[in-house]
């Protein structure tokens, strides 16, 4: 299992796509719930995080 913080950004999303294409289990951590659905459709788990700063 790979957990990618910042998985909706440029580098994180490229890493996530590569790992998913290789059949790896991936969890994306994001603050934006609107981006969760697209990653779930690609096969990733999604964890929503809150930032207080």
From TrEMBL:
Residues 3-52 form the RCK N-terminal domain. This is Uncharacterized protein YbjT (DUF2867 family). It comes from Rhizobium binae. The lineage of its organism: Bacteria, Pseudomonadati, Pseudomonadota, Alphaproteobacteria, Hyphomicrobiales.
